[in-house]
Amino acid sequence: MQPGTAFSLNSLIEKAVFQTEYAINLTNISGELLMVNRAYLQLYKFDSEAEIIGKKQNIIKSPQTSATVYRNMWETIMSGAVWKGELTNRAHDGSDVFIHLTISPVIEDGQIIAFMGLSLDRRQQIILERQLFQANKLVLLHELGTGLAHELNNPLTSLLLETDYLTEEMGNASSEQRESHMRQAVANIQSGVKRIKKMTGQLLEYSNSNNSHDLEIVGIAEVIQDSRLLLDGRLDSAKISVETTVDSALEVCASRVHLRSVFQGLFTNSLDAFLGSSVEEKRIRISAKALDNGCLEIHFQDNAGGMPEAVALQVFDPFFTTRKDRNHSGLGLTLARKIIGDHGGKITALSSDGWTTMHIDLPQSVSHKP
Question: Which of 205-214, 267-276, 310-319, 323-332 has the highest mean pLDDT?
């Protein structure tokens, strides 16, 4: 077209929408697709509009995104407000699509008549985040490995003693009392083997990046208990008491590996904090309760002296650490916030009267209809 050619405003808007590199879609209030642009088709790997126009937007829905995210999304946009967030969708070929999504209600005469979605591709950001998570895994594995020899030594020593006892008793005449002792020895051996198997299994599971993003229904009490498995020796050596008040019925839909790593990191942070603390009675308190809004409220607290307000404001910043002498990455709490956020929750740090509290909100595992 020649310079100076007149264009109608509507024509310009239409061309801009269809030619922009950002994926744009328009749906009715039921979520049926009315329009998509070229970038949307490319992002989700469709050949033409005809493949998806008139179909529900959930044609690209992925199980990798928490149902709570979708529920919050619909509650927000149906109220007339703009929703913004990060989620995972699924392309036509089954591959994951990582986006930052903004959904804006389209309003006419005070009524919502449609929704416009604008998606920004986050693929490169996700790659970087996963690289950072892998780097932090190495740091955390080092921390866990520090106490692994101690943790394995106790059950292995017990196993050797029990097997020595059984070997000796097998050559003696049987008696009812001796049989009872032998049965207890066998039970102790079984318990020790199970503990070792669980510890090594947890390390293998954590080091395997292929399953770390799988979502499942998990009990918070179980996740917290498992997160202590490789740290109990260090907690005992430091004479730190751990008080846990968490109902076993409280569940979330989450990546077990990622959620466990959050609490392992919190335990490790508390252990480090107590190194520089003069408090005599060292305590960690963990509690969780269900709230009326469908979330779980979890408090992870230690009395290692608290932290200055300026530190509390920075603890989630990338590479921020007060323990440079211990070769800390400064990524632990940054990734904890990312993991909790990916599960539809949030984490904040509070400090008062010598106590540091990590306040975590996570959506409960409940069914709903988006």
Answer: 267-276
Residue pLDDT, tens place only, 248-260: 899 988 888 889 8
Token pair for residue 293? 């809004």
- The residue whose two tokens read 């300026």 is 310
Segment 266-301, tens digit of pLDDT: 998 899 889 878 888 999 999 999 988 888 999 999
DSSP state string for 193-246: HHHHHHHHHHHHHHH-TTSTT--EEEEHHHHHHHHTTTTHHHHHHTTEEEEEE-
Amino acid letter, 213: H
CA distance to 143, 151, 228, 304, 325, per residue, from 147 (Å):
7, 6, 11, 21, 19
Interior angle at CA 64, CA 59 and CA 65, nearest 5: 75
Rg (the chain; Cα; Å): 27
Mean pLDDT of 69-73: 84
Query: Which residue, chain included where needed, has tokens 């060292």?
Result: 282
Answer positive or negative: Cα dihedral of 219, 221, 227, 230: negative
Q: Is 103 left (phi over 0), alpha (psi -120 to 50) or beta?
A: beta
Position 367 confidence tier, pLDDT thresholds 50, 70, 90: very low
pLDDT at position 168, please?
A: 66
Count of H helices and E strands in the chain?
10, 12
Half-sphere exposure (Cβ direction) of 364: Cα atoms closer than 13 Å: 17
Question: Would you give the DSSP letter of residue 151?
Answer: H
pTM of the model: 0.56
Measured between alpha carbons, how far is residue 22 from residues 35, 46, 84, 117 in Å?
A: 14, 15, 15, 10
Buried b (16+ CB within 10 A) or exposed e, 148-181: beebbeebeebbeebeeeeeebeeeeeeeeeeee
